[in-house]
Amino acid sequence: EVRFKNGHKDFFNINVTNEFYEVGDIVVVEALSGNDIGIISMTGHQVKLQMQNKEIQEVSKRVLYKARVGDIEKWVNLVNKEDDTMMKSRYAAWDLKLNMKVNDVEYQGDGSKAIFYYSADERVDFRELIKILAEKFRIRIEMRQIGVRQEAARLGGMGSCGRELCCSSWMNHFKSVNTVTAKTQQLSLNPQKLAGQCGKLKCCLNFELETYVEELKKIPSSNTILYTEKGEALCHKIDIFKSLMWFYYKNDYSHSLYAIPAEQVKEIIAINKKRRKVKGLEEYSKINQAKYHEGDVNIDDLKKIND
After folding, report:
1. What is the mean pLDDT of residues 98-122?
2. H helices of the chain, where?
3. Using an 8 Å Cβ cutoff, are 215 and 262 in contact?
4. DSSP 3-state assignment of 296?
5. What is the CB neighbour count within 10 angstroms for residue 244?
6. For 138-156, what is each residue's pLDDT tens digit?
7. Cα angle, residue 73 at apex, residues 67 and 76 outer, rounded to 5°
């Protein structure tokens, strides 16, 4: 497995010179047209497992040889030119009044070709732009459209957690994230907190989703209604990992909440199925009457909850 700029990786299985390669070696590899330069990021059986994970069946690309000093110097010079090339291409797009943004430029290792990554909200006719860029830089041009997630991955940055963005540091592919994922984890649907640098829902919402789904299977539905002698009780929220369900009386306008362990909720449901009512939620409640009045929270009750 060979890594190129911005974490882009590809697989090669033909060793032309029969050299011994190690992780970290800079190598010249076969490209669709010409040669490219990358860094070996993985070898051996691990590569086969990675290919299976990405559902790649066969690879016929070749590793040509270890990069020489001249190859590396040329490669470094090309990398140093990429930012300047990107800005000039942006100015060219603005002059043509194209509704697109050039996000990044990646030169091929031999300098014969450059890939221009761009984002756009709609289809863009960039044929005139390609002619201008090809004439200005004297290279072959390839335009590749990327989405906002890929744009954030290429630009990089820091997340709200204080760490480097997952998409630019270690993630290989993106999975769709939707509001159902946030609801499953009992998160408030606050766009400012749930959105990442790309403006979409954070990828990390998927990381613990399976654990939440498994835990929720052990807890009764949030639509559960409990029947007591004091009236019907409705579920307000669920604390998944403490296995607590918060209930309130439907006809209680003081909005008192009762935290009841999930196992005891199941006991009440079983009693209700026998067409019997329990006396009240108080005898089952682990935290009694945590009161919420017009948005104000009883601090003493919150301390009990946190303990």
Report:
1. 91
2. 45-53, 69-95, 127-137, 148-155, 166-169, 179-184, 191-194, 209-216, 262-273, 299-306
3. no
4. strand
5. 21
6. 999 999 998 888 888 877 8
7. 100
